[in-house]
Give the backbone structure.
Amino acid sequence: MLLEPRLVKLSTRTGVEVRRTLPNAKLRRIGAWVFVDHFGPTAQTDGMVVAAHPHTGLQTMTWLFEGLVEHRDSVGSVQTIEPGQLNLMTAGRGISHSELSQRGPSAMHAAQLWIALPEATRNAAPSFQHLASLPELPLSAGATGSLLVGELLGVRSPAQVHSPLLAAELSLVAGSVLKLPVDSGFEHGVLVVAGEALVNGEQVALTELSFAAAGQATLRLEAIGSEPLKVLLIGGAPFDEPIVMWWNFIARTHDEIVQLRAAWNNYEHAEADGSFGMIDGAPALFSTFDDRVGGWIPAPDLPNVVLRPRV
Ligand code: MN
């Protein structure tokens, strides 16, 4: 099944538009992957400019194809990330963070994905993991790849996740084919970030996400056209917990979302009540690079309906 992106301008971001393929009118999630955003390529100076904002009940995975971004968060992390590295932030019961493109590279091209946390760990303490290098995958001729999350071809990533998940970056030279043995209990998605692909015989253009339901033991990728192919492969065991996803929060009930929103919008007092913590030096940081953003982003108004949990 082919999932086409929609253009989104997030309330938490200025600068480039984001192409979002999950959630999608056709599909809400792939395993516990609930959110797939793809930025750029664009000029680095138009890149990621995101002031302090909160998350709950999820992990964010940030992966750069090009560019340089600084991440700061309320557990004290100050971490630049470059292509080939992984930032995995676990919000648990609550975290706040900022992301800002840095001077240097000319281009910015990235993906950010969210992982829903299961009930057992969604209220755990927040944490942050940076992986400076990732294991290479032993692929056939014409293909190279890195494993970001999970296990594949006997290789295991040290990324700490809380349900059975997979993420990998795969590159194929033009005209080549990769037959990849995968966990047939997983659902899979293939996001094309450069070139054009056939995925299990389905034509997938740049920025599109091809979905494969559970039950397949092999994924077949082919780089069609004259350009090299680069994809982000994600997968996971079907995640069937009903969740409420609103703004930057994942919770289980409408009332939880109301409380989280109120706690965040009381940001000046958030340090005192311990809801989300504070980011050291964030306002000063933003003013040195880009004056389009202030220190923090308030949550928008809630819709005039009761938010219902969805599977
Ligand atoms: Mn965020």
